[in-house]
Every structure is written in C-alpha cells, then in structure tokens.
Amino acid sequence: MNRTGIQMSPIDSKAMQDVEPAVCDSDGVDEMALAELRSEYIANADTLGSVPLPGTITGAVTMGVSMLKGDSPQILLDKLGERLAFERTGTRLYDALITKCEVMLAGDISMTIDDLEQIRADEARHFLMLADAIESLGGDPTSQTPSADLVGVESLGLVQVLNDPRTSIAQSLHAIVTAELSDKAGWETLVALADEHDLSDMVDRFTQALNEEREHLALTQTWYEEAIGLTYGDVEVDELPVQPQSQPPP
C-alpha cells in the first residue's frame, strides 16, 4: 500500500505541523550559507571538459584551415560527439526495452519486437555514421567531448528507468519518448551546424537521420498513448490525422 502521503496518518501529520515557528524559522541564514558555498564552487570550477585536439596531422590541418576560414569546427566536433554518445545510449535503451517486451508485451498495443529491433538498428547505424563523420573531420570518435559528457549524465535516469525490472512497458515507453524528443532536437541542431560549415554530404546524411528520428518519435508516442489507454473522445489515437513535420534547412 502506498503510504507516502501525509493523509495516510492524519494524527501524526498534524503533530508534525504543530511545531513552534522558531523551530522552522532560520531567517534565511541556512539558505544564504548554502548559496554562498555553491557560488564559491561555481566561481572556481573548471569547465566540463574540452574538445580534444586532432590526433593526426591531417586532422590538425583540416581543423586549422577551417578556423582560418572563420568557421568553428570545435563546436561541430563537440556536437558530433554529443550525438555519438546519445545514439550509443539510445541503442542500449532499445536493447533494454526489447528484453522487457519479450517478457511483458501483450496484444493491447500495436508495437512489436520487430518494430523495436528496426529502431534499434537505426540507432546503431546512426552511431557508426557519426563516428565516420568525426573521423572525416580529423577528430577521434573515441574521445569524449564536453557535450558528450553532458548527455551521458542526462541519460542516466533514462537508462535506470528502462533497466528497472519494476517499470511497466508504458513507463518504459514514457522514458523512450523523452529520449526521442531530445534526439530529434539534437539532430536538428547538427543539420544546421553542418549546413553552416557547407558540408553538403553531412547535411544530406544528417537530414535522413533526422527524418528517421521523427518517425521513431511518432511511433513511440503512439505506442505510449496506446499503452496508457489514451483515446480522444471516440477516436482512437492511431486514427488521428498526422501533423506535417517542419522541413529541415535546405
């Protein structure tokens, strides 16, 4: 039985609230001290990391030429590293969901194991494509960039949700939708950066990946809504018209 709310024990909760004001009143001193301590740490902290220098002469020349032209290749490499880390995590998320669905999946939603394996394959293919893109710019795909570090921390909660044996398929899909929303936004940024650097081949490949991620998002949203029994009046979710997606930069 869920006993987390104070209404489960009205006598004890009343006693907890009937305390002398002086006991709870700190005049903001504790909060100010904590804020001052945090401010000191913030002021003296190092950055989250740095974009690694190219490990090859060719890579160094490529980056140097790009910087002389006024470009910012380090930003592009940082964001490529971010997507690389996120696609690796995405592959693992779908691995975990497939394992869970092999045990728990029933016939009440349209999602199938084959659907999940296809999306998982897309995520793994995106990972390899990003590794090739980093190498083509003279970077090292095994290096961790600041943004890769950031999304690694951000994704920890999603990984925990999918690997928790207590979470249902609906709860797992909620985490997957969260990941797909972030993934879509990340690819949109990457397409824009590649376009800014006049990397037409990357723009084409990244746009294709973006369109695939949009499909993943639409599918997982539908499956999640089916899993929680969501309908719109008398209309089922999969009967609703699909809104057109905004087009990526030319």
TrEMBL record:
Question: Source organism's superkingdom?
Answer: Bacteria
Its recorded name reads: Ferritin-like domain-containing protein
Organism this protein belongs to: Massilia antarctica
